[in-house]
Amino acid sequence: MHDVNNTTEQQDAYECISVWYGGYGNYFCNFGWTCTQTFYSMNCLNLQNSFGCVSLRKAKNTVFNKTYSVYEYESLCAKIVDHMKSTGEWWEFFPHNLSPFGYDETVAQEYFPINESEAKTKKWNWKNNEETSSYHGSYYQPHNIQEYDEKIVGYDVAQRNIDELLAGIIKCEDTKKPFKIIKQELAFCIENHIPLPKKHPDQRHNERMNRRNPRKLHERACAECGAHLITTYSPERTERIVCEACYQRLVY
Ligand SMILES: [Zn+2]
After folding, report:
1. How far is the CA of 250 from the centre of ligand 1 (A)?
2. What separation in angstroms does the CA of 67 have from each of 51, 52, 56, 80, 105?
3. What range defines the domain where residue 150 resides?
């Protein structure tokens, strides 16, 4: 198995995402359950000898969701493979340009960040996360959380404020992207006396991600015993890094 993400009980799979529950010989597939000898297919269940199928279940010798005899299947596949070899597509996963998402919308951007011009150079999709037109109306300036709590301001005032907030659009104080607060989120904030968020959920996520160390490993020496260790803490950082044995000894 090689380059397979999110899988169980597979053998002989290559460049697949989410192929599960038995089966073997899956290549360049995205979501497949108990499929065998299946190529370039998505969301399929229990296929055998199939090529380029989508959302198909219990089928054999199929190309583009159409069933053929064994002989027809093999000769058709050979033709497709020849064509794909000529375009450079064969033995590669689905190309980026088929993705309905921009690179910057995916988790790839969190782990391997690039900018728009780099994406364009590689001919990858890019969707600028600029203010969208999905919300219409004027912006709402949230009050302190107490203003929505009927135990503090009384039922009528709290209810009026809650109605206004839930109908309102809030502008992220950093990115200016519009977002909304949902009823359950507001109830949670009121109950736990948590201030309402002033930043768009994406911005909050980015800030959490930025608190993590970069995905890069550094070779360092243990600050206690000098043992060689590999860590995400770069040598310039001020934290004291120790090996596991020293850590255990210091902690217990
Ligand atoms: Zn040590």
Report:
1. 10
2. 10, 12, 11, 16, 37
3. 145-201
Give residue 135's pLDDT band: very low, low, confident or very high (50, 70, 90).
confident
Q: 213 alpha carbon to ligand 1 midpoint, in Å?
A: 21
Distance 48 CA to ligand 1 centre (A): 53
Q: What is the DSSP letter of 139?
A: B
How far away, in angstroms, is 232 Cα from ligand 1 center?
16
Give the pLDDT score at 52.
97
Q: pTM for the full model?
A: 0.64
Q: Based on the fold, state whether residues 195 and 230 are members of the same structural domain.
A: no
| 247 CA distance to ligand 1 middle (Å) | 7
- Residues 187, 228 within the same domain: no
Residues 196 and 231 in one domain: no
CA 209/CA 224 separation, integer angstroms: 30
Q: Looking at the structure, do residues 197 and 233 belong to the same domain, yes or no?
A: no
Query: Do 187 and 224 lie in a common domain?
Result: no
What is the distance in A from the centroid of ligand 1 to the CA of 166?
54
Looking at the 3D structure of the chain, how many domains does it have?
Answer: 3
Domain-located, residue 206: no
- Other C-beta atoms within 10 Å of 148: how many? 25
Ligand 1 midpoint to CA 214 (Å)? 23
Q: CA 184, CA 186: separation in Å to the nearest integer? A: 5
Q: Is residue 50 part of a domain?
A: yes
Ligand 1 mean position, distance from CA 249 (Å): 9
Token code pair at residue 232: 């995400």
How do residues 163-172 score in pLDDT, each as one tens digit?
A: 999 999 999 9
**Distance from Cα 252 to the centre of ligand 1, integer Å:** 14
**The predicted structure's pLDDT at residue 127:** 87
Is residue 114, in this structure, part of any structural domain at all? no
Give me ligand 1 centre to Cα 244, in Å: 7
